[in-house]
Amino acid sequence: PNPIGLGASFDEPSWRKMGNIIGRELRALYMAGVGENNPQSIPKIGLDCWSPVINIGRDPRWGRNSEVPGEDPYLTSRFGVAYTQGMQNDPADPSRLLAITTLKHFAAYSLEGNHAFLGPVNRHNYDANVTKYDLLADYFPAFEASVREGGAKGIMCSYNEVNGVPACGSSYLLTEVLRDQWGFDGYVTSDSGAVRDIFTPHNYTKSDAESVQLALRAGCDVNSGNIYFVHMSEALKARLINTDDIYRALHRTLKLRFQLGLFDPIEDQPFWQIPLSDVGSNATQQFNLQLTERTFVLLQNPNTILPLGPPAGKDRKIAVLGPFVARKQDIIGSYLGQICPGRYGAFSCMLSVAEGIEQRANSLGWSVESMEGTGVQHGDPAEMQKAADMAASDDVDIVIVTLGITKQIESESRDRKDVLLPQTQLTFVHTVLEAVQQANKSKRVVVVLFGGGSIDVGFLTDQNVAVVMAWYPSFLGPQALARVVFGDTSPSGKLPVTFYRAADVDKMDFLSMHLHEGSGRTHRYYKGDPLWPFGHGLTYTHFTIVLSGHTEKSGNTLVIRGDEKTAQLAADVTNDGERDGEEVIMVFFRRTDRPTRVFRQLMSFRRVAIKKGGRERVTFSLTKEAFRLYSHVDGAALPLAGQYEVEVTNGVDQRAVCSVTIEHSQVTDDVIVAK
Asked: Strand order of the sheet with strand 48-49?
């Protein structure tokens, strides 16, 4: 699934396992010397992955929200750490790197450009104006954690400026913060063409040769593009750079080749023995299916519409409608690569949504009919009516309507102008719902949404309609969706982003990097009433959460004493519903003894699988540093000693709260302050 769906799974162990599978498959493909049948004749598979994207989903209109795990810095940090550790490290050979992750895009990057509402501003000329607070609280955490804890060996600097300086020419970002403060010891590459952007359109230097000087000395070791290749000799002859600058960049990149074992005999290296048969193995595909199932978020389910069961009689039908019934490529999302063997761009080896539903429905005795009825952005009223007539047919008991957006609306280089469905889809779904209501109010209606983030479907909240957010579920999405809607597994995803109302989004300043401004953005700052909040997600069963008494000290207060670094908070989670299921337990905190900009902050989460009637004790280790907040006045780290409220919740109807006191410590905190 796309990263936004992976974020919805809140499944850190699976992120780590996924990273490791990718790393091992890279090794197998590299050893075999094969790659994609790409018409552009791109190079064969290498061992350096330009992923993950760990910018936060700052604004719901950003075109690349599908590429990030969500809007929360902590969630994104855990994704970056797990992905990096899984891809770079393998116990088969602890002394070498399995592959290399390249974290992107550093820093404060979350705008593509859309001339329709942003005018001439785009990612190539945008200046991200940020404060110390913005950097430390919002834009740095995921990168810092992925470097310090994850051990990432690659960083990609972004197109934009940060406070007037192009990111790929910023010694503050690439040397002072990244290497001197965080201890980064890998390599830095530019985004493709970002070094060229320094001269124009940023107009920060007077020539491309000066851009070479600025970027190379700032710490940009590799130029994706041709500026280094074409103008480095010119810069050297003009004494803008010297050989030490070049050797430094070479050292950083060649060092990683040694750490990958590329200059050592391969006979005793386990990573060279990974067979090509490991790529796309049955075990890997089963893991993929399970992880995809965990990404779906059940947004609403009135009158227990879901899960669907067997038909009540013979010759009963399910109608599958909407623009996504047969679109295979569009449910894969961005950066799809070669999906099926043979021709690049072929999708014959995967099922469509309608085929996935039909395959499972037929096994239960249903027959399935499907038709689009409308395109994503354009539709024919006559075709819409045909689809509505199918839904209203007497032999149809269940109507599944697919709606959403595609990379023609949101993608790299293309931001959304709003969070609404295209008008043609709004007309279509209202036509279908009206026909169903007039025909038979007992029909079950399920709406499945596809897309990379927040979509305002508020008109459905007072309808007797189940709503499932499927994101871009990718290759096994149709099978996973069918298993969820038919109850083979219970949905357990949680929203990794806030689902806003469109009117509120229209008032947000897309060009502002200050998340607290106006009505605020992301769950940490948003002052409005969301359509569905961050962390929301229903299941087919029910869980209760009760804090375990043994963790409580001084009544309902947990005390972290001055010489202690952590405290344990335990909660008993009980499945008191009617079926087995999985639940995500999240821990938030807020400061209660002084005003802070953040309303509440995610500090931990855990996914648990509990049988019907079962109970599990979930213990969270709360470190002092996890309570770190920053002053909105000058960006300075606030003293940790103080009073807090900690909330343990499933994001729906369970909320267990305790107070936390952190006592003063004589030990000076190691605080990094942005300049």
From this structure: 48-49, 100-106, 154-157, 187-190
